[in-house]
Amino acid sequence: MQNPVISRAFDFSDGVNRQSAVTNVRETETRTSENVQIDQDGVSLFRYGISSIIYPDATFVVGTGIFYYEPDTGTAQVIKTAGNAGSTDFAFLSLDSGTWTPITESGFTFANHIACQGLMANQLLYVAARGGSNRVMRYNGTGVVQIATSPVCQGLAYFKRRLFAWGDTSAPHTLYFTATGDLENWMTSDSGSLTVAVGDGDEIVSVKALYDRLIVLKTDSFYVVEGNDHGTFRLVEVFSEDCGCAAAGSVVQIENLLYYMGRDKVYATDGTSVTSVSDSVQSILANRARASDPYVFAVHHRKRNMYMLFYGSPGGTDLDVALVFKYKSSVGGTSVNAHSGWTTFVSFSPVQAGMSFRNAVSKLDLVYLVGADSNLYAFETYDNGAEITEDDGVAVTGVVRSRWDDGGDISLSKRLRRMFLVFSTSAPSGRVALVRYVNLGVPACKAYQFLVSGARTGNITLQVFTDFDESTVRQTRTITPPTGVTFNGLMRGIVQMQITAERGQEA
After folding, report:
1. What three-state secondary structure class fits 137?
2. Which pairing describes strands 319-326 and 306-312: parallel, antiparallel, or unpaired?
3. What is the C-alpha to C-alpha distance for residues 436 and 421, in angstroms, rounded to an integer?
4. Residue 223 in contact with residue 247, Cβ under 8 Å?
5. CATH homologous superfamily for 50-395?
6. How much is the pTM?
7. Tally of CB atoms within 10 A around 377
8. Residue 442: φ, ψ to 5°
9. Element (DSSP H or E) covering residue 44
10. Is the separation of the CB atoms in 391 and 51 below 8 Å?
11. What is the chain's pLDDT, residue by residue, as a tens digit (507 residues)?
12. CA distances (Å), 277 to each of 18, 335, 435, in order?
């Protein structure tokens, strides 16, 4: 009697799991999901491209920030802050007809700094320079001034019709705020300050408004400010350790939560509790170049429900890796709620700053990145709506490495017979899924793993590994798409195998 043939199905909708034991990774998880992004249907799409859209600025090449200035009336503008390579000369620049034009700075010097954070309030762009010595700066569409009565600051928040600022090196635990509705009055009326845990050796990293609370993130602790005015503001400690923020630029509000990077985890908080959302990729994040932490930033890609965290790979400081979280949205119906998980983006030109915004003309949700080469880059979509599928003409190679599977019983030897792969496609006929199968001749094994790599154009490579050895390829197969068909991503895999020996027998 012939030994039975069994089938095992995989999909990749829950992203990477590098923390669980290799035999405990779920069939919806992977060991590697590189240069892929999880869509709302759980498909591992080959990631979209990052394309330069503006030639480099010849002088101010060290990007420190990028912002979208959008008044209620008048013309919206893309604004960047950048420095002159090899000097301490920094400037504000606006994007005008494909050219970066310096913005007049009146009555002050834009000091050397690490990164800039900005916010729109009262139709003005307010900017703080982290790692520098400037006070609050304000842009009105034509020029930049420094508000002389404001404190030296590293960051800004808007809460209860006030600006809040922090980071004065002479008062590192102090949170300053303006008068109500008067965002440039830091000295009179009901302006004032709050002291946050003096003497704990724990500096304020970031402050963000969330609903009716002001979230204060220190390096190792977490506070909130409650109240409505100078007389009722009070400070409440939520957590005293192990939930602090390691990178000010990582803090992003997504729907009803703040996401931010801690020492070795990414957290989400609603202001009352803190949850780690990165346990499955903790080893990946812990392996980053920690020297890059002051420069780390995150972008919320609203169209794709993604939190994109840019940091440096081991051994350097360039921001050349993105750890990407597809979150479950609380709005938009069940289709966007179905899947969440982590993937990584690699092999793109290093970046220095980024932002997501809704273009005032096209009404598209866009992501812009400032490159280390001083180029301005767009991710996925140009401002005319055209999709970007390559990195400046170079195909993006995605890699999915499956979990190790033992067919349900690691004591049994099995011979792999065939594999079916289901791809998401862009076919002229309108077909959205395409099944391809390959015959396999892998020696009998107790467990197997497969790796799929390829791009949106060209062939797909399938490699098979056995018995927990990820260094030795047991078989390689090439999968060619039909003429006119593009593989957008991988939906699922089905493996057929035959038991070759009972328990306790030699294979």
Report:
1. strand
2. antiparallel
3. 5
4. no
5. YVTN repeat-like/Quinoprotein amine dehydrogenase (2.130.10.10)
6. 0.94
7. 23
8. -80, 135
9. strand 44-46
10. yes
11. 467 778 888 889 999 999 998 888 999 999 999 999 998 778 899 999 999 998 777 788 899 999 999 998 888 999 999 998 777 789 999 998 888 999 999 999 999 999 999 999 999 999 999 999 999 999 999 999 999 999 999 999 999 999 999 999 888 899 999 999 999 999 999 999 999 988 777 889 999 999 889 999 999 888 999 998 888 898 888 876 678 999 999 999 999 999 999 999 999 999 988 999 999 999 999 999 999 999 999 999 999 999 999 999 988 779 999 999 999 877 665 444 567 899 999 999 999 999 999 998 899 999 999 999 889 999 999 999 999 999 999 999 999 999 999 988 888 899 999 999 999 887 666 557 788 889 998 889 999 999 999 998 889 999 999 999 999 999 999 999 888 888 899 999 999 999 886 544 444
12. 14, 21, 33
**Secondary element (H or E) of residue 283:** helix 282-286
C-alpha to C-alpha distances, 315 to 45, 56, 236, 287, nearest whole angstrom: 29, 26, 39, 10
Distance CA 325, CA 278 (A): 9
Q: Structural domain boundaries of the chain? A: 5-47+399-501, 50-395
Helices and strands (H and E) in the chain: how many: 1, 42
- In degrees, to the nearest 5, what angle opens at C-alpha 362 toward C-alphas 297 and 319? 15
Per-position DSSP letters for 412-431, written without gaps between them: SEEEEEEEEEEEEEE-TT--
Backbone φ, ψ for residue 294 (5° rounding) = -60, -20
| 3-class secondary-structure state, position 26 | coil
Q: Is there a contact between 155 and 132 (Cβ–Cβ < 8 Å)?
A: no
Give the pair of three-digit tokens for residue 370: 């400032």
Q: How far apart are CA 249 and CA 265, in angstroms?
A: 15
Q: Report CA torsion sign: 403, 406, 408, 411.
A: negative
Strands 448-454, 460-466: parallel, antiparallel or unpaired by DSSP? antiparallel
